[in-house]
Amino acid sequence: MTYEVHLHKSALKTLKKMDGTLRRCILNKIEHLKRDPRPYDCKKLSGSDMYRVRSGNFRILYTIEDKKLIVLIVAIRDRKEAYKTRQSVA
Fold first, then answer.
1. Which class is domain 4-89?
2. How do residues 23-41 score in pLDDT, each as one tens digit?
3. Are strands 70-78 and 4-7 parallel, antiparallel or unpaired?
């Protein structure tokens, strides 16, 4: 059972700005979310329905719709900024 991955407009914009190596690492992590949206290294963020996975110094913030088999990538942010502005993302 594979999930469909959708990227929010802001996440796509962030991804396009990254250099090739970093972009490939993040895309690889996103590709794994298709098969397993809750990998062992994911964390559910308190106070919301969002999850996060780490990819180097970046955090991929996403939600899961199990009934529709969809993973929505809400944001891709540097670890220093990922949690400060989480309320504005959700």
1. alpha beta
2. 999 999 999 999 999 999 9
3. parallel
All residues at 6 or more sequence positions from 19 whose CB lies less than 8 Å from its CB, including other chains: none
Confidence bin at 83 (pLDDT 50/70/90): low
Taking the model in full, what pTM does it have? Answer: 0.86
Neighbours of 68 (CB within 10 A): 10
Q: Which residues contact 52 (CB under 8 A, 6 or more apart)?
A: 42, 43, 45, 59, 60, 61, 62, 82
Q: How long a stretch of residues is the chain?
A: 90
Query: Scanning the structure block, which residue is given the tokens 């009934």?
Result: 67
Residue for token digits 């490939």? 24
- The domain spans of the chain are 4-89
